[in-house]
Give the backbone structure.
Amino acid sequence: MSEKKHNVSRRQFLTYTLTGVGGFMAAGVILPMARFAVDPVLKAGAESDMYAVAEVADLTEEPQRFDFSYEQVDAWYQSEVTETAWIYREGDNIVALSPTCTHLGCTVNWDANEDYPDQFFCPCHFGRFEKDGTNIAGTPPTEPLHKYVTEVRDGTVYLGTAEPQI
């Protein structure tokens, strides 16, 4: 092909040039904003964090309520979160259960209803759970209470995340 057939008019040259320059300028503006929006999502989560909650010496075979707080970083927002756990000893094992009902997320309490002693009871929808967190058949919850990952170090109970027992 000869060069005569590849003539570019002034209008086409300006269109190509302005499109290219505009594209580079748009990329220069959009890429930092996209990085700002996506970067917190790509950071490694703190799912393996363990929090000191109670002393082993303070635990009994009766579930006790323990509140614990920790700093949570959610994307670029940092806040203090307070959670609760029902903790008790079962022989040499330590069991820590989440107080969140698996039916609709209400808060359950231990031995709160005199009609159902020694059970976790949800007053909102009358959900009931055994001491080990197992849901009682015929009540609204369809799965057991979630169980915290536990670890004992130097006589202190550390809790991780609450995981389903199923």
